[in-house]
């Protein structure tokens, strides 16, 4: 489908001083149809972007505005990269201003459909539900084409969902899913946190959010629940790994019946055959975060643990790229009718 659009769209980024906002800008600087408009922040409003994001050289002299409807008005697209709970009220005001604006929220506010589940995991009022920005889920790409509002998935839900989705959709497993996923520290954002000081993180790994309490558990469950009539259960354990970027997720589930590793690989190959960003590795190769850093690619592998009777799948993603900002740009492309891959690469930075 071709939709009419101006040659270059003006994009504002709220939360430009943060990790997600910075990565959105890094990608948009390479996007041929985008002109970068207002850049806003919270406590850093008034500062030069170059003092906070020195890698974004072409934008070094831009001054950060305060985050308000007034500063975000007058753009074709507004990307929100703010802490949860901030985007709900702001998006409501932006909607009042102009409903034709594309608003892409990197935060969690509009991801969950069930208000009670939202309140249980986030402890605040539910803002609403927007089209979910994971085009690789069946039927989702059509909902995102031409959308005016997009909820970008969380980084763990992106990789956890993509890693096991073909097995759930094809009924290869009973959906009693166990996810153990290690994330780089940028997943926690830039705001200082005592457990994320260099001395605490370097040379050490830890589990956190253990026992079904991490707020991404219901998001993964919601995604997988859309793929099967069976009741989906998800046990999710996040780990913090001593690296700046990347998530490596190991996802396992009981086999529903006899299955070989080659058959499982074949199901994944068929499911993702047309997906530009999903790269199923050759049998015997295993995903590594180092291969996807800086790219919008997802690397996957799947096999069968015969003795345990479980399917074992492993996925790697850059939490800031396909895990957030890359997904935001992919959805911007779909919303505006550009080729979905515009401005995005599958080539990682290695070593
Ligand atoms: N990091 C990741 O891997 C992922 C992040 N996300 C989501 O993206 C969003 C941003 O995360 P991230 O970039 O990591 O976080 P950061 O802490 O790095 O950045 C937060 C940004 O929001 C701004 N901000 C904070 N409070 C306010 C406020 N009250 N009013 C206006 N602006 C404010 C900050 O400005 P200032 O510098 O002035 O404080 C900063 O620009 C979150 O919702 C997060 O869940 C989603 C997936 C993955
Ligand atoms: C390492 C680390 O702390 N990661 C973050 C997840 C970041 C993310 O993607 O989540 P949202 O967009 O839903 O905030 C966490 O576990 O809270």
From TrEMBL:
GO cellular component terms given for this protein: cytoplasm
Entry EC no(s): 1.2.1.38
Gene3D superfamilies: Dihydrodipicolinate Reductase, domain 2, NAD(P)-binding Rossmann-like Domain
Localisation per UniProt entry: Cytoplasm
Residue stretches making up the Semialdehyde dehydrogenase NAD-binding domain: 10-145
Keywords per UniProt: Amino-acid biosynthesis, Arginine biosynthesis, Cytoplasm, NADP, Oxidoreductase
Keyword Amino-acid biosynthesis: yes
Molecular function per GO: N-acetyl-gamma-glutamyl-phosphate reductase activity; NAD binding; NADP+ binding
Any GO BP: L-arginine biosynthetic process
Catalytic activity, reaction form: N-acetyl-L-glutamate 5-semialdehyde + phosphate + NADP(+) = N-acetyl-L-glutamyl 5-phosphate + NADPH + H(+)
The keyword NADP is assigned to this record: yes
Pathway: Amino-acid biosynthesis; L-arginine biosynthesis; N(2)-acetyl-L-ornithine from L-glutamate: step 3/4
Active site per database record: 155
Job description of the protein: Catalyzes the NADPH-dependent reduction of N-acetyl-5-glutamyl phosphate to yield N-acetyl-L-glutamate 5-semialdehyde.
Family designation: Belongs to the NAGSA dehydrogenase family. Type 1 subfamily.
Name of the molecule in the record: N-acetyl-gamma-glutamyl-phosphate reductase
Biological source species: Nocardioides silvaticus
Designated gene of the protein: argC
